[in-house]
Write a structure and sequence with these properties.
alpha/beta, 9 helices, about 40% helix
Length: about 230
């Protein structure tokens, strides 16, 4: 298959798992596969060591909000790493999709509360957190939704925000096409991963649409990190 042109984003593409009527078995296999994928490519272990662990207070729980938790693996991983370091991380993980909530709650984790909610819901109820994070969320959003997410993120913390996402590039697209093709029939990981890359930003594109005060960084492999910090402790 000839790969599509990747010079421009394709924000109007719709991922198969976003269809409320998609095959439930394939969806749940996809959620299960997220754990392995994120361990390999998302860089959260490094972000925990360099950005989060230095902020964790040994004398009190640090609160963290994970927006759009999907399969719930990032929240579980962060809580586990903190616990192994003898630190307390109190995580609220939210997703508006009840299918994600049902899946995540089958595997509860100490220190993690999974909830069906949006960031706007939490702003409305006056929640505050020390840290706000998301994984693979930005490329799903239209311009108005992106603006709303960033506004909500800053309203929900006086501390650190980390939005971790894909960066669009041909090497990653070709690698994903080959590496995940054997999974194409049993889950949405192959097709939706390719669609996600086509929907994702390049660094200059993301820098052009985020407000002043946000910083876009590149990470390996083929990732973008959108950060903001309200204050330091």
């Amino acid at each position: 298959m000839t790969p599509p042109g990747l010079a421009h984003r394709d924000p109007d593409l719709r991922e198969l798992m976003d269809d409320p009527d998609c095959d439930r078995d394939r969806l749940e296999r996809t959620y299960r596969q997220f754990r392995a994928v994120n361990r390999l490519v998302s860089g959260w272990r490094r972000l925990y060591r360099t950005r989060l662990r230095p902020r964790l207070d040994p004398d009190r729980p640090t609160t963290l909000l994970d927006i759009g938790f999907g399969g719930g693996d990032i929240a579980r991983a962060l809580a586990g790493w903190a616990a192994r370091d003898g630190l307390s991380l109190d995580i609220t993980a939210i997703d508006p999709d009840e299918r994600a909530l049902r899946f995540a709650r089958r595997s509860p984790a100490a220190g993690v509360s999974f909830q069906q909610a949006s960031s706007a819901d939490l702003v409305a109820r006056g929640d505050r957190y020390d840290v706000v994070v998301s994984n693979h969320l930005l490329h799903h959003l239209d311009p108005a939704q992106l603006t709303a997410l960033l506004e909500d993120s800053l309203a929900l913390t006086d501390g650190l925000v980390l939005h971790n996402d894909l960066a669009r590039a041909r090497p990653g697209y070709l690698f994903w096409d080959v590496a995940t093709r054997p999974l194409a029939r049993r889950s949405f990981l192959h097709e939706d991963g390719l669609l996600s890359i086509r929907r994702s930003y390049r660094r200059a594109e993301l820098e052009a649409v985020v407000p002043t005060g946000w910083r876009v960084e590149t990470m390996v492999p083929q990732r973008l990190l959108l950060t903001a910090e309200r204050s330091t402790r």
